[in-house]
Amino acid sequence: MKNKIKLIGLVSQLLAVTLCGCGGASENNITICASELPHAKILNEVVKDILIEDGYNLTVTILDWTIQNDAVANGEYDANYFQHVPYLNTYEGSTKLVPACKVHYEKLCLYSSDKDTNKKLDDGETIEIVNDPSNIERALNLLASYNVLKINESNYDVTKNFVNFDTSNPNSCVTFLNGYTKCSLTCVKESNLCASLSDYNFGIIPGNSALTGLGSNVSSRIVLSEKASDELISEKANIIAVKENNKQSEKTKELVKVFSDARVANYIKSTFGDSVLYHYEDLIS
Description:
By secondary structure, this protein is α/β, with parallel strands linked by helices. Helices cover about 35% and strands about 25% of the residues. The chain has helices at about 1-25, 35-55, 70-75, 85-90, 135-145, 195, 205-215, 230-235, 250-260, 260-270, and strands at about 30-35, 55-60, 80-85, 95-105, 110, 125-130, 150, 155, 160-165, 175, 185-190, 200-205, 220-225, 240-245, 275-280. Helix 2 crosses helix 7 (about 205-215) and helix 2 (about 35-55) runs antiparallel to helix 10. It is globular. The relative contact order is 0.19.
């Protein structure tokens, strides 16, 4: 009987140690869902090693961007990395998510298709742009900055500082300037932009979609690059997002600290060149 009691006690002690060990492992494991490029690549190839130095393990899951906010809100991941603040502000889930830090800015660029051998925008070219309202104005401003077109005043809402854009007839919202009067715009769903680029002469494609869908020669296909102001870079920088009640957690603080590391900045610059700009802002201090 005494031996049986001792055995039960020993099993209880082992179970307690095991549970403590699991708890410690969980506390030191950070889980993030992210888009494949450049987000997951940055996490796996530079952030993960820096976290190990601080005693944390990083698990990265590539997830469709349309479900990442729900995944964090439901507690499946500690954070996500795919969006900018204006997009986060459109999230309508019952659990509030907040930005922890800003990390990088993806330039919007005009890319040439295989059917264009000049890699120069000329009159009569067809241009696809994304049908996402948060990127439509950026696309129009990119072309306007190179005097390709101007946004019609009737389509600009001064009170909201926003362009009222008809995605079914985008050409009715702009006036193409001399030298480009025969050019035309077509709105395409972002997930189809890269696949449909061959149907057009050029495409204005958000950075993460271009990096994922255009292959390793993506930089060589850039014809025009966004002239982004400091204000725009800050506004549209991609962020680490967490649940509001985790904003001051040790894991969140660790992530914010790691992304400030110069090795992250150097990696982004050396890996992605001008298409991805490092832009760090601490949003929890």
